[in-house]
Amino acid sequence: MTVVTALTTSAGSMWPSCVSPSSTSRHPAAAGEASRTPESEVAPVISQHALAPVNHLSPLASRPHPHASTSSPLEHGAAHRSSFSLPRADTSPGSYMSMSPGNSVPASPASAGGGARRSSHVAQRSVFGFIVGHHYTRIDDGPPLISVAPSSLSATTGALVRHPLVIVLVTCSVSLFFLSNSVASLWNGLSDSQCNYRNGSNIDVFQDYNISAPDGSAIATFIGRGATLTNFYVKDKNGHFRDVVLGYDGRRKYLTDPEYAYYGAVVGRYANRIKNATFSIPPLRHLDEPLPPGMTVYKVAANEQKGNTALHGGKWGYSRAGWSLIKHEADRITFGLRDRGAEGFPGTVHVLASYTLGPDAVWTTRLSGQVKAGKATPMMMSSHVYWNLDGYGYDTSGAVGKTTSKGALDHVLKIKSSSYVSTDEILVPSGPITRIASNASPLDFRKARIIGSRFSRTDGLCGGDCTGYDTCFIYDQRVPREPVMELISPGSGISLSVRTNQPAVQVYTCNHQGSTPRKHSHGGPDAGFYEKHSCVVLEQQGRIGAIREPEWGEDQIYTPTRAHDWWSEYSFSTV
């Protein structure tokens, strides 16, 4: 048996980040104005590193979508289009950088009302190692999978750098990956004027990027930090747009809020919880017993239940990483990430997060993971969006007011599921897959019903001393031809149906919310905070904790010859 853990450190849980000493922080505020980030929001110093000569990326400009609705909440309803090549980053062992107090990442100010933005994105060196839990690692030194225009990168001398690429498209139920003839040749020294977070992102990870459906039926905003969805506008039964997802107006809060709840982010390398933050390859359930020869046990960064679980990939995971921008068009955007053994997981993984808005408000999300080097690894990614289809009673008509509804508890939910994963008081699997006993069970959503209708009987379904749902439902079908679940707000009339290639969904009813100020689109700041049980998270994913439950028969171990492919389609309509 081999046990893989890491050296204990006293550096704490905050991973380092960096900017040049002369830079300032500005990001779009709720009303479109730029504001300075207070020093209290800046990560503490861990280390500093000399910066390489500047290489600048070409400016990215907004271009209106030819079919965008003129009545969109963002006024222009479209994102700028970009396709560009990237500078190389330092790959020397141990290179890492940090932020000095008072300095932070600059972002281009937005025009009032969310109008078209034009920004000069300056690439940076920003090769991060970080000390976390028991492991010192470097998660990334730039975007791994790149679609580029071959002469778009200019250095400070004005010279153009060209990198011919070979593009390989794989369509048989696996991810779409872009391979260059020499990926390593794309990473050179990044700039000293903008240091993003943790993985050498080629963009300001707090900058907004908008996409819109070709018919103007939906508009979404993303940031590179966590490849995060920050706003999602669809029309209600009266034809008014409502923002149906939770988040922060101040984008840096996605990094600094101590109560951060994975709002809208990609979670990984392994979503949900790993018992004792420990797993083996091949998988075994009981790791406290004598193990057979050849077994490797891994200890990853624990971040919950006093070290008893690793939640959503560990202390930082993919949700707080600075993803790179791979491709951005009017109706779609792709972010990329290279994970080099972060949080103690084995192997190097290249990840893509691709988002597309189609006609009739159909949003497609695809998360692709490819093991590129080293050992086999567990992988289970998910999208962690907090939904309130009522938009907290606020729309863009101008005639808005505080909602009198009970939030998500008034939503109607239907799930094609006859079984679930039973869990203990710390929400790790406690036994075999359990059948839903009867139609009277609070877990029975096979027929559509109001989420709060049996809420008083949910004690323990979200852990010890908790009322609400935090439950993994197993779908009855695995073929994603038909919707497997539906969520409806009677107040707004907005309906959301989901198709997915995942076998399960984790339903979480915001049992611990209450300290996050509402966004402007939800009546904030005057309307106060996002209330407990006022939203619902629908995490399409594998069976939780299956890495410790081999008898379930779900293979969550991936290798260079087996890619991880996560796909979900969210269709919006009105009833």
TrEMBL record:
Residues 1-12 have a biased composition (Polar residues). Belongs to the aldose epimerase family. Residues 100-111 have a biased composition (Low complexity). Pfam families: Aldose_epim (PF01263). GO terms for biological process: galactose catabolic process via UDP-galactose, Leloir pathway; glucose metabolic process. It comes from the Eukaryota. GO terms for molecular function: aldose 1-epimerase activity; carbohydrate binding. Residues 1-42, 57-118 are annotated as: Disordered. SUPFAM superfamilies: Galactose mutarotase-like. PANTHER family: 1-EPIMERASE, PUTATIVE (AFU_ORTHOLOGUE AFUA_3G13240)-RELATED, ALDOSE-1-EPIMERASE. The keyword Isomerase applies. This is BZ3500_MvSof-1268-A1-R1_Chr1-1g01265 protein. Keywords: Carbohydrate metabolism, Isomerase.
